[in-house]
Design a protein that fits this description.
The complex is a heterodimer of chains A (250) and B (466). Chain A is of the alpha/beta class. Helices cover 46% and strands 10% of the residues of chain A. Chain A has helices at residues 33-52, 54-59, 74-87, 129-145, 165-171, 184-197, 204-213, 218-235, 241-248, and strands spanning 62-67, 92-96, 116-120, 148-153, 175-178. The relative contact order of chain A is 0.15. Classes of the chains: A alpha/beta (250), B alpha/beta (466). Chains A and B meet through helix 1, helix 3, strand 2, helix 4 and helix 5 of A and helix 1, helix 2, helix 3, helix 13 and helix 14 of B.
Amino acid sequence: MNTTESPAYVQLTLNIKLRDSSTFDNYLGDLNAAKVRMLQAALSQKLQSKSVSSATAAAAELFYFVAGSKGVGKTHVLQAACHETEKLGGRAFYLSLNDIQYLSPEVLSGCVDFDLVCIDDIEFVVEKKAWEVAIFNAFNEIKTQGKALLVSGEQSPVHLPFTLPDLKSRLCSGVTIALSEAPDDLKSEIIRTRGKLRGIELSEDVMTYIMKRSGRGMADLVNILQKLDDVSLSAKRRLTVPFIKDTFGW
Amino acid sequence: MSENLWSKCLAYLEDEVPAQQYNMWLRPLQVEKKGEEVVLYAPNKFVLEFVSEKFMQRISELINEVSEDVIAGIHLRIGSVGSKSQTPPVSNVTAPRAQVRSEPSVIKERTGFNASRKVEVEGSLNHQSFLNPNFTFQTFVEGKSNQLARAASVQVADNPGSAYNPLFLYGGVGLGKTHLMHAIGNEIVKRKPNAKVVYLHSERFVADMVKALQLNAINEFKRFYRSVDALLIDDIQFFAKKERSQEEFFHTFNALLEGGQQVILTCDRYPKEIDDMEERLKSRFGWGLTVMVEPPELETRVAILMKKAEQQNVKLNSEAAFFIAQKIRSNVRELEGALKLVAANAHFTGEKITPLFIRECLKDLLALHEKQVSIDNIQRTVAEYYKIKVADLLSKRRNRSITRPRQMAMSLSKELTNHSLPEIGDAFGGRDHTTVLHACKKIVELQGLDQGIREDYQNFLRTLTT
């Protein structure tokens, strides 16, 4: 028997990962903090005004466009807004468009019944006429009904080449906040904190090693954390530099 | 009780399902417990089908595990707690063994028109106008760019059906066409409260017609639209390529005009330029009055900002308004967005709105906007427009067909980028900064003398900044 071969059996991990929910509380870093707090405050005010008077709520229209490159935390902000809405007794509708091939524009129907509608990764519908029209119609209905809307995209809507200029101009009519990319030390801190939430302890040495070897975009780093989360349980090993080296073949 | 049961299930599901999927498919579900039955509500057919296929088995297991009571059945429906569900259950699970029976084939479309859009027969008073009460002539800011359109709209509101019929308003997005349309509708209703005025987007007209055909209600549809006192249809260009809708609209249009009922249409372009639209419709669109709404000039943009600020209870002085209006020039919606951003920051920080504060608030927004305005981009756009090569712009050639576009591009580079004059000169084949200065002066001068140059310049500004 060749002992150098990979083991025939690997321990399967149980689905017992600790919760790593995106909330406003665990949105880290000072860089975008003021913008995100502003959004949180506006959302809270909007949802609380709903219980006071529907007319006031309708008047206090809320539409934010969250712009920023991949990995700056747009999805985190949108999901945090969903959490916040539910915490305040409202209902939230979240739609990520990055798997658009598996979706139909029909998924948007009925979204106006929710207190908050979040549409993540708007750039994926560019030049897809049926989607653009569906979002355009949803936008108008959400606005008419005085509900809250958050849309995210990698660029300002001004630069997104929609086939429907009407959609583009409407997306420009909200409060646009641009999230900036975190510096490396903040990215390390974010990954270590998110690791802790999942019960993964990443030492400073390990983190420095990862930052030197891996892609430094947040999406790359989150994928690494995800992989470590999966393999560390099955390998039953501490997360040391040699273990990381083996795992990723660096 | 049912909320508690569902929260417990969600706690498990949140751990088991990836966050994205959890947020998209499970978070929007609502649960109601009716005796021994549990009903899950999905917001639409798509979510219902997805949940039914991917998660229903696990959901039913969890409900049976978590519930302290006997669960006789678990159903998945479209709707929300408290409302009457719109479909029969598609999943029916009987405790204790979670056996999901999915019947996606029985899912029906949501009944044609919702309550407020129900097609009413002629003479009924229960129609809904869909007019936005905030869009009136009082809230419309008049300027050079829209005064003709506003005057025509006032005339139509004063004499519906006889002044100009149809009234066809056209122009780019976010310039106030829809506002004027609603203002006419609101004015007609104000003067004659029982007037039947209906506003709708052309997409909605098409969708309603399709539903009417599906439900065998096309005659009611026809009767309804032909019985209105004024029909306001927005963005008529969406009828392009929809032949059946064009056909139906053609007859409705004729019937309304013959009956002396008012028709108001908006479009993003001049009737003759609408592609894939029947000629007979295009020619009819021009029977009444066709008016263009142009992009607002600086002073109008300032006035619009001041008006919007007043409506939102935001203290904005004219200096601050001028600052925003100089930076945002494409359309009113973008202006509105910039104002909202400033107002949201002021509200959040409690600071007074000054040009310095605005500069800070708009810093990111302008950086996002200006990202793609580079000298290269300007040169490419100008060369393409005048059908010359970028190399010509950079060359030593001095005939007018080249120098004028070159001066135009230099002037735009000064206005739209932060490059210094020597840098701009360098980018145009190593010219001196005084040549750039001369070009800028020349273009300003020509704009005052030649309407063509003025229009070209404004078009470039819009194209490059939107």
